[in-house]
Amino acid sequence: MPYPDWLVIEDERFSSLILLNGQLDHLWQAGRWCEGPAYSAAGRYLLWSDIPNDRILRYDENDGHVSTFRQSSAFSNGQTLDREGRLITCEHGSRSVTRTEHNGRVTTLADTFEGARLNSPNDVVVKSDGSVWFTDPSYGIDSDYEGGKRHSELGCHVYCLTVDGALIRVADDFEKPNGLGFSPDEAWLYVSDTGATHRDGGPRHIRRFRVEEGYRLSGGEVFAESDRGLFDGFRLDVAGNLWTSAGDGVHCYAPDGARLGRILVPETVANVCFGGISRNRLYICATTSLYALTLNTRGHHIIGEAVSPSDVRTPTR
After folding, report:
1. Closest CA to 233 of 134, 86, 155
2. Which of the 8 DSSP states describes residue 130?
3. How big is the CA angle at 36 (ends 154 and 298), to the nearest 5 degrees?
4. Fewer CB atoms < 10 Å away: N or C end of the chain?
5. Which positions ≥6 away from 284 have C-beta within 8 Å?
6. What's the predicted TM-score (pTM) here?
7. Interval 268-314: pLDDT, tens
8. Sheet harboring 66-70: ordered strands across?
9. Which DSSP category does 237 fall into?
10. Is the distance from CB of 17 to CB of 3 less than 8 angstroms?
């Protein structure tokens, strides 16, 4: 069977991850800049942010219906679910990370560091121990388009909110830290840097850090460099392959750093996440639209869900 025209195979390992009789589904189009997808397995729905339109949208996987989940959303960006299924959201407007409780009340988890206001939290993941990790570039305070133009009180860093409620700066050598994600065994943290948006020749790569005890990171070498636009948000599958947004679609990298292939999307991709009953549905937020593709791999475990030994892979150095 020939490869579809939206698929580029660069390493034969990619062939085993793709269903050649699958298709790239265009599910919805009416946004300005779609970002921050988060999937609820219990509800079988996807939430994502339309940042300039100041709203969170909801796609029902059962019937394909799209509705507004929240407006105003404080110019929400990245989102995820915690171990109890509560929505964790990065908000440009409030310059904070929040949690939506089961009763709908919104709790602020972090909005300052050492007495200074955060910039505009961008993307967030929750580790299996319950700690919340997020990036804080300045995109939401650079203009009024994705938040409100404000003065930056801090540099652009990566933070961890510990299970004890302490906010720790875990990385301070980024220009514009953006997407982030853990390897399936949580031994590694990947973080993208999109500093090229603000400086000619600036970073357009993903770095990889070893996760040490006490919420410390070590290493930080460049894992992958983008040759097509910027890497924004990404997620990893059960084998440790990294599926990342890029200027021409979605790129897939093996744990050894080799690019396996590309999924070509007709709009610039901002972020992805896994969903579906088998976690094999890749949802793609791309500029104005929501796309989806069924894969022959699964996203690594949903927070709070049991992980079988076969699901865990450790990348090589």
Report:
1. 134
2. S
3. 125
4. N
5. 245, 250, 263, 265, 269, 271, 272, 290, 291, 292, 293
6. 0.94
7. 999 999 999 999 999 999 999 999 999 999 999 644 343 433 444 44
8. 34-40, 45-50, 55-60, 66-70
9. B
10. no
